Automatic annotation (TrEMBL):
It comes from the Bacteria. This is Family 65 glycosyl hydrolase. Keywords: Glycosyltransferase, Hydrolase, Membrane, Transferase, Transmembrane, Transmembrane helix. Residues 305-679 form the Glycoside hydrolase family 65 central catalytic domain. Gene3D superfamilies: 1.50.10.10, Glycoside hydrolase, family 65, N-terminal domain, Maltose phosphorylase, domain 3. Pfam families: Glyco_hydro_65C, Glyco_hydro_65m, Glyco_hydro_65N. Belongs to the glycosyl hydrolase 65 family. Residues 690-749 form the Glycoside hydrolase family 65 C-terminal domain. The chain crosses the membrane at residues 669-690. The active site is at 479 (proton donor). InterPro entries: 6-hairpin_glycosidase_sf, 6hp_glycosidase-like_sf, Gal_mutarotase_sf_dom, GH65_N, Glyco_hydro_65_C, Glyco_hydro_65_M, Glyco_hydro_65_N, Malt_Pase/Glycosyl_Hdrlase. GO terms for biological process: carbohydrate metabolic process. The keyword Transmembrane applies. It comes from Rhodopila globiformis.
Amino acid sequence: MTGPEMKAGIPGPGADPGWTFCLDGYDPLLENSVESRFAISNGFLGIRGARATSRGQRWIVPARTYVAGLFDTSGTEHATTGLVPAADWLRFRIMMAGGPLLHHPGDMSSHHMTLDVRQGALFSAGRHFDSPDLGIQVRTLRLASISDRALGLQLIQMEIEQGEVDVAVEASFEGVELGLVIDRLDQDLGTWRTRHSGKRLAMATTSSLQIDGRDLEPAARGPLTWSWNWKTRPGQIATFQRFVAVVRSDAPDLDPGPEARDKLGSARHVGWQDVVAAHKAAWGRRWHNSDVEVDGDAKAQRMLRFALYHLNGAANPADERVSIGARALTGDNYHGHVFWDTEIFLLPFYILTWPEAARTLLMYRFHLLNGARAKAAAMGWRGALYPWESADTGADVTPEQVIGPDHRVIAILCGKLEQHISADVAYAVWQYWQATGDDAFLLEAGAEILLETGRFWASRAQREADGRCHIRGVIGPDEYHEHVDDNAYTNVMARWNIRRALDIAALLREHWPVRWISLARHLGLEDAELAQWLDVAETIAIGRDPETGLFEQFSGYFALEDIDLSHYAGRSVPMDVVLGRERTQASQVVKQSDVVALLGLLPEEFAGAAAETNFRYYEPRCSHGSSLSPAMHGLVAARLGDAEMALRYLRQTAAIDLAETHVAADGGIHIAALGGIWMLAVFGFAGLTLRNDGIAIDPRLPAGWDSMVFRIQWRGRHLKIAIDQANQSVEATLEAGEPMALTVGGDPHPLGRAAMLAVRFRKPGAASC
Ligand code: BGC
């Protein structure tokens, strides 16, 4: 790098508060949740937002780096599977004669961190005056590139304010021997392998330091380590840069080292400025396609941007072998395991704003179909039962026990009983295909998933003496109640799954007969079996009162103790802790949206007043013991026209990761809740629904939201939708793709190519529900 480039310095964060999240000073109690919140990720690498300033021996604390799909098992009898963190590649120290430059707790006020979500980068700035001999201003940048996901970049700029002293700077990796077995450690390359799962990891790296624009030769080098010495003088600018290139290999005999070196070589060749520019341009494209702009409510705007930042950073459309864990790559709660969170709370966002990423996430499930078949078979059923918690092999990795809040060992039954996951995967497959029209995916993967999950339910539901089919002994989304019979969510989703499987069988038979013959042969599917599926779908018990349309959450639920949750408002612990497990199980207290989730996903099952009836019954009984719950309630409230309640739920959801007081984010951000925020805004406030013949919107913006603008993709088309509250109007622009129909407020309108449609969606003064 030359002198003039140095003068410009390293890039800094933007100033627009709509795009930046800042933190001043230091609060040890909030440190872990801040690390989650300020994590940077590109769907392959996830780096927690550890501060550039610590109170300890080092003034750069280790930042945990996670690599998607780098799972290992404990190798014990009850093996647990989890993401193994890679070595921290960001370690950096300034040393003076007396030891490392420390930063004392009382001296933190000058330290600022800024997560710039538009740039997808974490910045920090601070002044270090620990020693009377030396004063330094330090600015840092780190990013995980989304234009080349193998790449991480760290830049540190030190401006000497005072002092002429000898200093040394050391750049190294931390934790190289933790978690993984070292294969080799060279100056510029480390390679490791997992202990039991047969995976390998390579991290190639290079560091350099310039003083006033001139490269300084390292005084010492070691494996993954560099150090430099020089004498400071006021006004001097020292700039440190480090690249890391990370490659995972899933085969024990495939050395990922050469590819990591290649990737590193390309990054070095173009230089950090180009790497930063390409990364920013890639984020620009993601924001163009997915931003939701809200005028009139700056707080809601920030919440949405925070959610969109983590959603866009969580997926990697190039890797079909990984999905998104419950904390994405921002922390190790739930060990990186994948739940229904992905299909129900994340896929909608990807399907409509980033279909390539959605397809990849569904292909992950397709590749693991054999594991799902094995699970169903091991439990005595046919078809595919997806694991409740999934990692990389298709096996169910749900832990069997956990220590409860009262220190008792609690058996976790979800791995065996929480089976709605199979219908949830099928639901996402169907939504993807409906929204994209990606027939190639349907033929290659989607149809097989739908048929095998449909087959599972048709074998799982058993006909009984009352002539109906029942699904006994499950856990629904409300995990407070275990071993329940005929959970409404499970049974209705199962029925829906079987029906879609039958639809697909009929469709393939008619339109792709050759594919149908080969798939039916491969699956051993005969007409008699399809007839049995239909019979199950038509006779399955769903627990709906034909008069009122009210669903009973499961058989016997209405007879349980009815507890008024308003008496427990303001509690700081979950209801099952307040009441104890036994009393909770014997009550109607619901952990999270269950019938309400069904209403969110399949509103057509709730005709007439039934939607209102069910929501008003279950909403007050829900304790929101899961982060997934409030957004789903908000979505349904918005659709029912209760925008005020919906907005409350939006804020409650955002607070899970953003509230200063919250510690629940210690182990990573709640990516499903963040997906729920997007769903609430787009499916709730904009009232977007996907139909066979097009898209419908029926806006219900909350008071104070002057306008809401967002983009979606539908069957190869790119649409921009702008909702104006004051005029009660919608402007829709077809930015790319063929003409289509758009239904606004119930009325269909043709939408021409590159044309803009402007319509009133509700007459001024009309009731809003
Ligand atoms: C919820 C599940 C969820 C899991 C991971 C649990 O507390 O009850 O529905 O899938 O967390 O987010």
